[in-house]
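Take one protein record:
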Amino acid sequence: MKIDLSGKTALVTGATGELGRVIAHTLAECGADIALHYHSNEAKALELKGTIEALGRRAVAVKADITKQESIQALKQTVEASLGHVDIVVANAVVQYQWTSVLEQPAEDYTSQFESCVLQSVYLAKAFIPAMIEKKGGRFIGINTECSMQNFPGQSAYVAGKRGMDGVYRVLAKEVGAHQITVNQVAPGWTISERERTNGIAESDDYIQNVPLKRRGTDQEIANAVVFLASDLASFITGAYIPVSGGNVMPAI
């Protein structure tokens, strides 16, 4: 048994980011053609496009503002003109900001998280799910976070955005399930990425002491979960929030 995404097209938002690059590359390794969304790092997007094409897959790099509906609609038109119908959407992009306490966090940071977590997902759904309904199938995957369950000091804007996103995904899963479209979330823990491998992995004793597997996860392990949900192996999984955190957070029943 293996994951085969041949004949599928996947869109990854935030594809030039530390996690987005690995998700996009892993989807391509499994046979999918890839639409690479980026916000500003065109050079990295074009580099990744070349890497994916070297695997024998088609790829297109598209600049867009994921917090604006008209920009996502323009992205859709460009992607469909280059690669055709999108079968798999991975909403990975998020606005970065400086974390601080609720009392000190600027209001605009809450707005940015709402726009990049909740509204991005809504705009992507409006853009790409109608064609999935016509084809009677598709995969809609969001990158959430273990922070949504932790609610630690300093996380308020991020948690607010991601918990709002969680609500959208659960409702959407019920609304489009009859069309054999699955809607799921992957929630990474504190993840080791290429940046840390290059610059040095941060000390993590305080973190891993609470992780049952006693280590931090890797970007590849997050990407593996995404690819699984994108595949036919996950055809009967929808509405799920799946932590990939070594057991650091565990949704209860």
Notes: The beta strands are 9-12, 33-38, 59-63, 88-91, 138-143, 181-188, 191-192, 217-218, 241-244. The CA atoms of residues 107 and 171 lie 27 Å apart.
